[in-house]
Amino acid sequence: MAVIYLSHPVHGQKVACVESEAVYDEDNGWTRYTLDEVPPTEEIVINTLEVRRRRGRPPLLELQGA
Questions:
Q1: How many Cβ atoms sit within 10 Å of the Cβ of residue 4?
Q2: At a CB cut-off of 8 Å and minimum separation 6, what does 58 contact?
Q3: Alpha-carbon distance 3 to 36, whole Å?
Q4: What region, left, alpha or beta, does residue 37 occupy, with left being phi > 0 and alpha being psi -120 to 50 degrees?
Q5: Domain residue limits, the chain
Q6: Each residue's pLDDT tens digit in the chain (66 positions)?
Q7: How far apart are the C-alpha atoms of 12 and 22, rounded to whole Å?
Q8: What is the distance between the alpha carbons of residues 66 and 51, in angstroms, rounded to a whole number?
Q9: What is the 3-state secondary structure (H, E, C) of the chain?
Q10: Residue 11: per-residue pLDDT
């Protein structure tokens, strides 16, 4: 049984056990790699614009004219 290592930019890494499975996966965007080389990865983008919610109760709205 063959062990074929595959990497995908979205789905990560996987192992295929049959050559036909590896060929099918390569048609769907997977790339082969060996354990000697590092699998290709993309940089992780961190959203710095995200606003964190405060914990606890939301502030009470002050009624105008009361």
A1: 19
A2: none
A3: 14
A4: beta
A5: 4-33
A6: 779 999 988 888 899 999 999 999 999 999 999 888 766 566 666 767 767 776 777 666 666 555
A7: 15
A8: 32
A9: CCCEEEEECCCEEEEECCHHHHHHHHHCCCEEECCCCCCCCCCCCCCCCCCCCCCCCCCCCCCCCC
A10: 87
Are 1 and 28 contacting, i.e. CB atoms less than 8 angstroms apart? no
Q: Which residue has the tokens 């048609």?
A: 27
Question: Tokens in use for 8?
Answer: 């995908």
CA angle 48, 57, 60 (to 5 degrees): 105
